């Protein structure tokens, strides 16, 4: 273990000895899983505390937790409580008889099997990606609050995804006697500028200090190569421009209407415009055919695909391996068509991928001498608990509203074990709603910086107003309507990269 990981272990031991729960909130990629397992190993070997412990994790990471438990502490008898209804029925006897030291299961199984799990007296409850309990009214949060546990450890790289109330939910889960009133917490930290935001920051840090540990890679992992993000702006193809105008024309009456229900309609328009930016073939009737054939039209009719078509040969020639993250699984289908057309060796992981297949793909991609060039991942499914540090390029084909989700995606590659500089290329369609989405996401990042790394107290997150949505939808519309033909540049990839680096600064 690295020195800062040993410090993390000692911090968790002190919490245990003080009877205090905690949040291990190290930045993604610093080995929170290893540190958590080391605590259970220490309790077993040094204190004779063998469990039972319950470890609740995202479905996609159950296999990885089992593998890491076996790797780092094989003396812990870990049991996986997962599978279909029939499979769990067979496993239930082991659970009831408590023939295990650590039970590893997904959020979903924890909810379904709550009746059995609530009967057991647990030594430790570990929740990975614990921002899932940030809403005290969520089903998972309500269920685990009923478990009989001596100690709770929350594990998350993103403790503050949206607002201060969510922070309260985490603190309430750890110390319900202290943080018992959400309204009190909200009012305490919702201060005006003149009241002195710096004082509020200090107050919050004082509260957090005993039971929240957060280290950044930049501070502790000096051997980790840097991560460099570049925004690459692309134009719309002629077909995309026509579809963009079609969406705006079709919904023109709603854009000009006034009324409470229009917000939902505006959100739908935003979604349709985002689909246009990704690829016009996401709309029925756009792709030429039948018969539907793979070919140059896959990239000629899409600005982002044209950029990818220019970028991938350069990356392959320099020996890089690539993770491509995308929000839409239907877009991943098109990316798969492209990969097959050029015989690129690739893997694909989305929400429908089975746990065993997911683990096998990771092993295959990370294996020494692997021929896999690209890994296609849906941003939400592929951003949690997956180690792909053998890749050095991350492409964000589109951006999430929540910047923490994109950070999680980047850190699949930028983590312990990475030996190369990680380049992140964020694709943004110029002069469209995508620009505004990225701008808003960047503003949201200030919240985490304000509270955990100090700074100014950021405005609490709120839903986009109808006016804000209208501004986003209308952004760039005039230029798109007035343009003729394709808006895609003919520049080579080096010129595009240079321009992207300038605009990113």
Automatic annotation (TrEMBL):
Q: Which Gene3D superfamilies match?
A: P-loop containing nucleotide triphosphate hydrolases, Tandem AAA-ATPase domain
From the Swiss-Prot or TrEMBL record, state where the protein is found.
Answer: Nucleus
Cellular component GO terms, alphabetical:
chromatin; nucleus
Signal peptide (UniProt feature, chain positions): none
- UniProt keyword terms in alphabetical order: Hydrolase, Nucleus
Similarity-based family: Belongs to the SNF2/RAD54 helicase family. ISWI subfamily.
Q: What is this protein called?
A: Uncharacterized protein
